[in-house]
Amino acid sequence: MDLTLPGALSILDFWTRIRAIMVQDTRFHRSRPFPHSARILLGILFVMCGEASIATAQSLTGDRLGEGLSISIWSPQAKCPDVPPLIAIDVDPERYRFTVHYYQQDGLTNPLDIHQWQERTGHDLVFNAGLFRENYAYLGLLYGEGRSMGSRRHGTWLGLFVAEPAEAGSRRARVLDLTFDSFDEQQIPYREVAQSLMLLDRTGKIRVRQTGKRAHQTLVAEQGDGHLLILKTTDVVSLHALWECLRDVFPSLRQVMAMDGGSSSDVAVSPSLRQATSKMAGFHSWIPLLEESTSVHIGLPAVIGISPRREQAGAKTR
Predict the structure, then answer these.
(1) How far is 110 from 133, CA to CA, in rounded Å?
(2) What is the per-residue pLDDT across 17-51, written as a single tens digit (0 to 9) for each?
(3) 3-state helix, strand, coil in the chain (%, to 5)
(4) Residue 300 · residue 79 · CB < 8 Å
(5) Residue 314: what pLDDT?
(6) pLDDT in tens, 244-272
(7) Are 306 and 125 in contact (CB under 8 A)?
(8) Where are the domains of the chain?
(9) Residue pair 102/132 in contact by the 8 Å Cβ criterion
(10) 118-122, 153-157, 192-196: which has the minimum mean pLDDT?
(11) Residue 250 neighbours by CB under 8 Å, 6+ apart
(12) pLDDT above 90 for 299
């Protein structure tokens, strides 16, 4: 029997071919094993199914910047032609702490750009915290070290980045969805808080309108393993296209919020980590992409910094 298979043969075609073999082979009986030719096709089918399941689970491999912090380039363009490569930063909140900064609370008269923020704070990594008005007032809830930074809850932007819980035993950083999750402003459950747009919720529903607007974007996503993933686009893209891509290609993401986009979308890695990485073997494509992804670094009133947790004798882990 001819077993020549066309390159684009679908799974349904495989089953059709197998059934045809069973019908044509008079030796086939329910109590006897499949004919040899059918077993060959089934084996190929199982391989195809295995490859398909592997393809649906993203596995980011990149440079390890520290124990619990890694950075890589995710290129989904084969399946998402409208989405450019993204810089993907995987953070383990059990090993790295998050700190929210607002320029007035830091005693500054004017906002700093992302690199100035990194130099001032000394964090390993800094990214933009959310949306703000022309007068640099933050739009939404913003807390640092358990203190409100003067902003109020936004009524329609329901994504909430939270970190450093007030009570022991809670997860150290999360993405909350105020459609489903409660947040008590009278008894603040987390010390670090930043509110922004919900992009993709736990049901797979998109939470932004399709406007056609394209811009650089910074996203914060909660993964199934408890890690947070910070995604920074390397070119302009619509939030709707990002939602479709993440929903279809990155199933390990539980829910995703969009921080401020456009020229406010920015990420900085400390010079010491960049230099240490550049000395490692291999090509580190994220280094030039991170520098080139935003041509102009504007002043950002609020940022979120990431630094390793440090244990102190007799003190609680921060």
Answers:
(1) 14
(2) 434 444 344 333 333 443 444 444 434 333 333 33
(3) 25, 30, 50
(4) no
(5) 36
(6) 899 888 888 889 999 988 889 999 999 99
(7) yes
(8) 11-56, 63-308
(9) no
(10) 153-157
(11) 58, 76
(12) yes
- pTM of the predicted structure, to 2 decimals: 0.77
Q: Are 124 and 82 in contact (CB under 8 A)?
A: no
CA distance 217 to 139: 17
Residue entry with tokens 């390397």: 234
pLDDT tens digits along 184-214 = 988 999 999 999 999 988 887 877 777 778 9
Which residue, among 111, 110, 115, has the nearest Cα to 125 in the 3D structure?
115
CA distances from 5 to 11, 13, 21, 49, 265 (A): 12, 10, 14, 16, 48
> In whole angstroms, what is the distance from residue 118 CA to residue 120 CA?
5
Task: Quote the CA–CA distance of 318 and 311 in Å, as a whole number.
Answer: 8
Nearest by Cα to 223 from 176, 255, 196, 259 = 255
Would you tell me how many other CB atoms lie within 10 Å of the CB of residue 315? 8
Rg over alpha carbons for the chain, rounded to the nearest Å, is 24
Residue with tokens 């043969």: 9
What amino acid is encoded at 53 in this protein? Answer: S
In three-state form (DSSP H/G/I as H, E/B as E, the rest C), the secondary structure along 72-105 is: EEECCCCCCCCCCCEEEEEECCCCEEEEEEECCC
Q: Which amino acid would we find at residue 199?
A: L
Q: Are 253 and 246 in contact (CB under 8 A)?
A: yes
